[in-house]
Amino acid sequence: MKLIKTILITVAFAIVAWNSVYFRNLDEVRGSRVAKDFNAGQFASTFWTSKLPGAVDKAVDLTALTTLISTNEKKAFDDHSHALGIGNLRYFLVRGKGVVESVEDDNVIIVLDDSKQQVVLATEFIFGNAVRDASGLISINEFTNTMDFNNVSAEINKIIRESVLPEFKKNVKAGEAVGFVGAIELNREHPDLTDIEVIPVQLTIH
């Protein structure tokens, strides 16, 4: 009886163990993982071509923005800036036009037509989240992790470096009239309007 009981227990254990194990085709597993992988490049490309143009059309004039900040800072930030959190760093999508004062290795210095304010157009070091966040069209809630969210910024910046800047850098010269749309970052607590750097998303030479 003891032997029979042992055999029955062993068989029962084997049946439970077998039912606990299942096999899947390796290609199916790989395919499932690929399907779940986030493609930051594709997301950024879709954002650039389908969503950003609408935001560009609504970009605030840079001189009008700086004037408003000087007279009604709260309204300027509330009406025109975007940010992910509750910190002081805020992002604006702005537009402007002016004359090139100088072409440097890492940027182009422009003097705005209407205010004669000097503005820096970044042409070499394009990094950070300014363009992603200035549009107000991308929410962190769309992503399952912060790595994917940050990779979108990297891909947007890559588009700028590869599609927006090369032709402009090749042709721009001091004294020429240029127009731009781009993103700027300002600290809401201490907005510095004397050294504004624009990360460009559109550039034209007139």
Task: Give a structural overview.
The protein is 47% helix and 24% strand. With 206 residues, the chain is an alpha+beta fold. It has one domain (38-205): Envelope glycoprotein gp160, DUF2291, alpha/beta domain (OB fold (Dihydrolipoamide Acetyltransferase, E2P), Beta Barrel). Helix 3 (40-57) packs across helix 7 and helix 4 crosses helix 5 (73-80). The protein starts with a helix and ends with a strand.
The SS-based structural class is alpha+beta
H and E string: HHHEHHEEEEHHEE
Query: Radius of gyration, rounded?
Result: 27 Å
Sheet-strand content, in percent, reads 15-25%
Portion of residues in helices?
Answer: 40-55%
Number of strand elements: 7
Please give the order of strands in the largest beta sheet: 3-4-5-7-6
In CATH, the homologous superfamily goes by the name Envelope glycoprotein gp160, DUF2291, alpha/beta domain
How widely separated are the two ends? Answer: 99 Å
Please count the helical segments.
7
- Could you report the average pLDDT, rounded to the nearest whole number? 87
- Which stretches are poorly predicted, pLDDT < 50 over at least 5 residues? 11-35
Biggest β-sheet strands, sense, barrel = 5 strands, mixed, barrel
Shape: globular
Which CATH C-level class is it? Mainly Beta
